[in-house]
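Following up on my earlier thread - several people asked me to post the actual chain instead of describing it. Fair enough. Here it is, all 286 residues.
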Amino acid sequence: MQPMNMNRGSAPGSPATPATAGWHVDDIPYHAIDPALLHGHDDLFVMLVGASFVEISSDLYTRNLVEYYRGDTVLNAWLDRQWQHEEVQHGVALRRYIAAAWPEFPWQQVYDDFLDDYRRFCSVEQLGPTRALELAARCLVETGTATLYTALHHLSPEPVLRQLTLNIRNDEVRHYKHFLHHFRAYRQQEGTGRAAILRTLWQRAAEVDNEDAFYAFKHTFLASHKTQAFGAADYRRYRRRAFALAHSQYPFDMAAKMILKPLALSRPLQRAAVPLLTTGLRFVIR
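Reply from S.P.:
Thanks for posting it. Predicted structure:
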């Protein structure tokens, strides 16, 4: 699968449509990357490769969402003309960064192997049971990406990577707000209760870790170690290291607030829930 061409342009006019990304992949000064600053940062490398694989495959997921929300012209216009292009741009930008910083890594070959596994999880049948609940799940996924890139921005020892991850982080926050807007409309239309929303958030959190992160690491591990031997224990060891690496810079409070928003808690409950969830996230991501 080849990366799609990225074109500058405006999103369709709509009161709910945010401004398009204020940057383009060609704006990133790849020539200024200092690979020496990245020496020894193996887990950061794996995180960036995994992110590039998932982001550049966003057209697969977009097609499913457009089919699932058939008839919703406003949401589908944004998904097809803006969200998809910005997500794929993230993958293209990260791929170009990896090629400049780690030129020995066979990105395309490893990506093709990853895609063979990943595409099995990209089908309309695997989306949420209702339109509102699928949008709640999308809010959780965007929370994960926005907070991940926030942590990567602060963790990066290399200035160009700090700029790139900040750009992507800002896009992901906008995407979260857009999905949240549409979720609220569908929640009201469908009468979706908090219990169903909470159950969906929990289920999607487990699925994300079992799908894209696992297979991205698997194929990066196999290529980097030039081996055919890989097991779940290898992933668990990496996961522990990645969590430990991210812990010092992970925006726990930001994550807690974003996760809770779809539940539409009252202000007193929100104030009480944020520190509790923040503490829980600190326990998990360590």
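Confidence is low (pLDDT under 50) at residues 1-19. That should answer part of your original question.
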